[in-house]
User: Fold this.
Amino acid sequence: MAQITSLREAVSGLIQDGDTVALEGFTHLIPHAAGHEIVRQGKKDLTLVRMTPDLIYDQLIGMGCARKLIFSWGGNPGVGSLHRFRDAVENGWPHQLEIEEHSHSGMANAYVAGASNLPFALLRGYTGSDLPKVNPNIRFVECPFTGEKLAAIPSVRPDVTVIHAQKADRRGNVLLWGILGVQKEAVLAAKRAIVTVEEIVDALEAPANSCVLPRWAVSAVCHVPGGAYPSYAQGYTERDNRFYKAWDPVARSREGFTAWMERHVLGTEDFDGFRRVLAESQKETA
Amino acid sequence: MTTPASPTLDFTATEIMTVAASRLLRDDTVCFVGIGLPSTAANLARLTHAPDVVLIYESGPIGAKPTVLPLSIGDGELALTADTVVSTPEIFRYWLQGGRIDVGFLGAAQVDRFANINTTVIGAYDSPKVRLPGAGGAPEIASQAKEVFIVLKQSTKAFVGKLPFITSAGYLDGGDARERAGIPGKGPTAVITDLGIMTPDPVTRELTLTSVHPGVTVDQVREATGWDLKVSPDLKTTAAPEPQELAALRDLQARTAKAHGQSGGGEG
Assistant:
């Protein structure tokens, strides 16, 4: 049952070292604030899952929080490479990162299978691709009815899923809209779920068929306005593309990255503190 | 803007690539669009000769009609202008795997002579020289769309004889290898670059230069290709962009630049 709580308490109480953690949001509603809190609390040995690892995963990987990454596309969307992710895979910095690599279709199906309490996902996929040669978790099975060959991959069953949404009500029911990605499936596939929201309202006033996650399917709801910054939160904020572009030079060097994380994340109390320090540093470089 | 295709021409190499790619998209087709060059070309088609083309993005928008190009696949502009927005699992399961996509419009880091695509690694997988972003939606788009267009800039780095990694299948080893592997879609029917257009030979499935863009020589295309590129005996010259095509493209990019402070999205 959802507790309305601070993000610090939610991360500290619900995410343990060694957990499998999925932070989802398909370049929209990315839970940046929650990612920062995971970094601040020094969580480690995490198996991080995400279809589209982008800046927040670059930060988690560069800060050494991840032991393994399960993903299907890793980049700075619209800008280029993720330099910390690349440094981990190409050079093992700050330590070796195990990767399990899929296609989007595979990952999306694996979340559906997880939410459906199935051990594996079944799809038409990966045919002709070299991905099955490097990922032993992509296998092929025969249809018991037609004999057709189909791809099978293990379900994604995170210990914890973290998402950002637009609204919750005071009881902890959550409403999100716009580009939904796999957020609903990721929450329902997980043992525990943390949702940061733009606002907490008296009534969701959700039309029928809306994407509502009932409070009994969520563990913690945290009021973090702007918690998806610098990504979009439809109806609230646009993507801050300057941040995405500025991230590229910051993340290129280990030293530059570490100094940036120390000042902006480790050196701040919470996401509001991060936004204040970021505004200062943006002024300095302007 | 990029360098002009030729000093005497009034359009750039990137513009002719985008226009040539957009022309291949027929009206009323259902097109699964990648961000970046494919999205620019597909929206240009929608704004010119194919007003009823249906654009589907992997993040969930179906029938998106963006006024400005999306910065990324999660851009609210795609959701706000779409006929409907569904979840990402639904996009891949019902709409792509369900067999409802006519054209998959993809970019690529590298292609080979059989139009296979690499977006995973350069070098060995376990110790890559360059770690690329990875597959995204491409493996299933490349296999399940009824046909595929690939758009990318041509260079020996991008057009390589043998890929270090096949992320998404084109014609595999050529001939009937794709059919034998049981891949349902027809495969890549055109690779459009800043220099010309390549299409697969009907029998060997090897990419063959069938059109060069105005001001480009065959030698230029061959020099920018990492294998001995075959040239069609019926080689054509791509028609230069019509004034209305160029105007629509430049308007779209100007609107996008005004909205985002840049010329449009990249991959992702």
Q: What stands out?
A: DSSP finds ten helices and 13 strands in chain A. Chain A has a mean pLDDT of 97. Chain A touches chain B through 59 residues (CB under 8 Å). Chain A has one domain: 3-101+157-282.
